[in-house]
Amino acid sequence: MLGPWAKSFPPSSWGQSIRQFVQSQARLSHFATPLLTIDHSATRHNVGVMAAWLAERGLQIAPHGKTTMAPQLWQQLLDGGAWGITLATAWQVQLARSFGFSRIIMANQLIDPVGLAWLKAELVDPGFEFVCWVDSVDAVELMRRGLAGAARPVNVAIELGAAGGRTGARSTQEALAVAAAIEAAPELRLGGVAGYEGSYANDRSESSVAAVRRYLDELVSLHDAIRWEAKPIVTAGGSAFFDLVGDALAPLSDRATVILRSGAYQLQDEGFYGALTPLPQLRSAVHGWARVLSRPEPTLAILDGGKRDFPYDLGLPATSFGRVDRVNDQHAYLPVTGEGLSIGDVLKMRLSHPCTAFDKWRAIPVIDDSGVDDPTVVDIVTTYF
Q1: Angle at 102 between CA 233 and CA 68, to 5 degrees
Q2: A single Gene Ontology molecular function, please (predicted)?
């Protein structure tokens, strides 16, 4: 049931179910500000664009669900042809299982005893397909301890890293030692190799692209150095460099299942990913809305949304009047020149980084983005952070 927990929803919605509220055909103007919205047709368009791009290259995708933590949006990805869903923590995997998702990549190490105990019990279900990362012999031993007596082995992928990066074995030699430990562990099954190229670049400069390509070549070399008993997975690919990942890994498609893990493309943005994306056909599907709260100076407007409402880690929100240059918890500072902006005006905000937009909202209206001035709410997405 909706209630005051649903930030910026009209009090008239309190006590209604989400279905009842959607059936009431509420409009954007019925909501308070600040507000976050999702554009209905834009998400469908983006899922279709990426599906076509992948099909042309013979690639699979398991989009990273931590971007939205919204099972409704995960299901849209699967309906659009996604191989599975990627998640980052044991708790996130548990949530996905509670919603019935059965094919999950955990793009992380799983050595926590509580998480391993849960996974051990879950392996009784033969329909549960799961793979997680491992990057050291010590991690293999901890997994063995936590999974002793499990109904079946857990698929693990060797994670390859690079100096200065995040997790991952730091060389092919180290990774092969991990592979040997996995092969000697009856609780585990060597299922593939994995990595994340986004740790090594954050722009499209020549040096950054070269660094990503070097890393991906090392990932391919690791795959080639292992004698596989069954067809493995090879997985990489965030939302910024998936074209480079496709170029490097697609030649393995006849010997491996190549899986990208991009998560932001479903929503896209008009900031960080909008500038880096290899697919300019993607459309931004998430926007903020904020009201001019004060004009305390001729060249300054204060808006009623801030850090608690909109992302600010990879770029500040922008409006048709310019870009916000500073945010507090509940306020944004918008430099302005001249007239044309009054106290009470509501501004549509272009955002950067969907991951840190969604974690601030428990219920997000999905609007009909057909260009009308006051769009209708066609759905509500609930998040689980």
Answers
A1: 90
A2: lyase activity
128: Cα separation from own chain's centroid: 22
Task: With residue 107 as reference, give the H or E element that holds it.
Answer: strand 103-109
Q: Could you tell me if 255 and 292 lie in one domain?
A: no
How many whole angstroms separate alpha carbon 65 and alpha carbon 57?
23
Q: Tell me what the mean pLDDT of segment 37-60 comes to.
A: 97
Q: Do residues 135 and 161 touch, judged by C-beta distance below 8 A?
A: yes
**Token pair belonging to 193:** 């190799």
| CATH code for position 244 | 3.20.20.10
Does any domain span residue 220?
A: yes
**How many domains does the chain fold into?**
2
Do 237 and 127 reside in the same domain of the chain? yes
Q: Cis ω on the peptide bond leading into residue 311 (within 30° of 0)?
A: no
Q: In terms of domains, do 156 and 192 share one?
A: yes
Please indicate, yes or no, whether the overall pTM of this predicted structure exceeds 0.85: yes
Instruction: Please state the separation of Cα 209 from the chain's center in Å.
Output: 22
User: Domain ends where: 207, 233, 262?
Assistant: 262
Pairwise CA distance, residues 220 & 349, whole Å: 41
Question: Tokens representing 287?
Answer: 């926007």
Residue for token pair 């996995």:
182
Burial of 4 (0-12, 13-18, 19+ CB in 10 A): exposed
Q: Which domain holds residue 246?
A: 102-262
Residue 32 CB neighbour total at 10 angstroms? 13
**Distance (Å, rounded) from C-alpha 1 to C-alpha 13?**
9
Percent of the chain with pLDDT over 90: 94
Same domain? For 184 and 256 the reply is yes
* N residues, the chain: 385
**Average pLDDT for residues 362-385, to the nearest whole number?**
96
Q: How far apart are CA 56 and CA 180, in angstroms?
A: 36
Cβ(80)–Cβ(56) below 8 Å: no
Q: Same structural domain for residues 302 and 218? A: no
Cα-based angle 350, 356, 361 (whole degrees, multiple of 5): 90
Residues 6+ apart with CB under 8 A from 371: none
**Token output for 137:** 């012999």
Rounded Cα distance, 193 and 196, in Å: 11
